[in-house]
Amino acid sequence: MHDRLLTVLSCLCIVLGGLSADECSPAVLARRNKVYVPQGGSLSLKCVVRHCGDPWTGNWVFLSNARRYELKENSDRYHLANMTLSADETMLILIFLRVNKSDEGFYGCRVTWSEGLMDQGHWTVVNITAAVPTGRNLLHRFLVCASAFLCLTVVLGLACRQCLRITQKIRTASTQTHDRRGQPYLALAPLPRRPVPKKRSTSPFKAPPQSERRPEPESTVYSSVRFSRWM
């Protein structure tokens, strides 16, 4: 009997614990944070309020030099906004268009519940740093972009040059191969030979020797003699 009673009590505790865990408990969900913003820059702070559908009011609190300021209305330097995340949660947003040194300090969300109780989240520390010169920043960006462009141009130029060399070699090799295929194979020319001396051509009729030559007969001249009659 005693064991059964303990078992029933344990089950009741487990069920009640689960029901209580499922219940919504109002709270301000904000983490401790530290941000650094250059002077003249913009800043956005956020804080989530879990109200579980109950009435509530909330605003931002600014703490600086041991003084406390409530930011309830928009101004020329900052804007307040609320964003509904769900039926149980709402986000409070604080936006600075341009921060200056006087905006440095602690920022937090403070909520007042319907019962009159107040709750506040963790602080966010804002530090204002020296402003970055605009001209120097633009010059730095220009130099970086110009350097990247020059490097890219050099790399592309070298790659194109290498491709042209390879293409030219391939074309030259293909042209030489085509020429060799189109021309017939020429036989090797023989080495020059020494000229053979020519033999004197001899007539089939040999001239008789000079001693055997006969003298040519002298020609006979005939003349006529006429006698006159003087006797």
UniProtKB/TrEMBL annotation:
<keyword id="KW-0732">Signal</keyword>
<keyword id="KW-1133">Transmembrane helix</keyword>
<dbReference type="InterPro" id="IPR003599">
    <property type="entry name" value="Ig_sub"/>
</dbReference>
<dbReference type="GO" id="GO:0038023">
    <property type="term" value="F:signaling receptor activity"/>
</dbReference>
<feature type="signal peptide">
    <location>
        <begin position="1"/>
        <end position="21"/>
    </location>
</feature>
<feature type="domain" description="Ig-like">
    <location>
        <begin position="26"/>
        <end position="112"/>
    </location>
</feature>
<keyword id="KW-0472">Membrane</keyword>
<dbReference type="InterPro" id="IPR007110">
    <property type="entry name" value="Ig-like_dom"/>
</dbReference>
<dbReference type="InterPro" id="IPR039257">
    <property type="entry name" value="BTLA"/>
</dbReference>
<dbReference type="InterPro" id="IPR036179">
    <property type="entry name" value="Ig-like_dom_sf"/>
</dbReference>
<dbReference type="GO" id="GO:0002768">
    <property type="term" value="P:immune response-regulating cell surface receptor signaling pathway"/>
</dbReference>
<feature type="transmembrane region" description="Helical">
    <location>
        <begin position="138"/>
        <end position="160"/>
    </location>
</feature>
<protein>
    <recommendedName>
        <fullName>Ig-like domain-containing protein</fullName>
    </recommendedName>
</protein>
<dbReference type="GO" id="GO:0005886">
    <property type="term" value="C:plasma membrane"/>
</dbReference>
<feature type="region of interest" description="Disordered">
    <location>
        <begin position="190"/>
        <end position="231"/>
    </location>
</feature>
<dbReference type="InterPro" id="IPR013783">
    <property type="entry name" value="Ig-like_fold"/>
</dbReference>
<keyword id="KW-0812">Transmembrane</keyword>
<feature type="compositionally biased region" description="Polar residues">
    <location>
        <begin position="220"/>
        <end position="231"/>
    </location>
</feature>
